[in-house]
Design goal:
Blueprint: H1 2-27
Keywords: Signal
Signal peptide: 1-16
Length: 31
């Protein structure tokens, strides 16, 4: 059970990071 929770937590953090990266690119597009 603990392994599953760790995997789900890691996926949640990874998706949050990806969403933030896209938001930053939209707000401040790189040259």
């Amino acid at each position: 059970m603990k392994q599953i929770l760790i995997v789900l937590f890691y996926i949640a953090v990874a998706s949050a990071s990806i969403v933030q990266d896209f938001g930053d690119e939209d707000s401040q597009p790189l040259p």
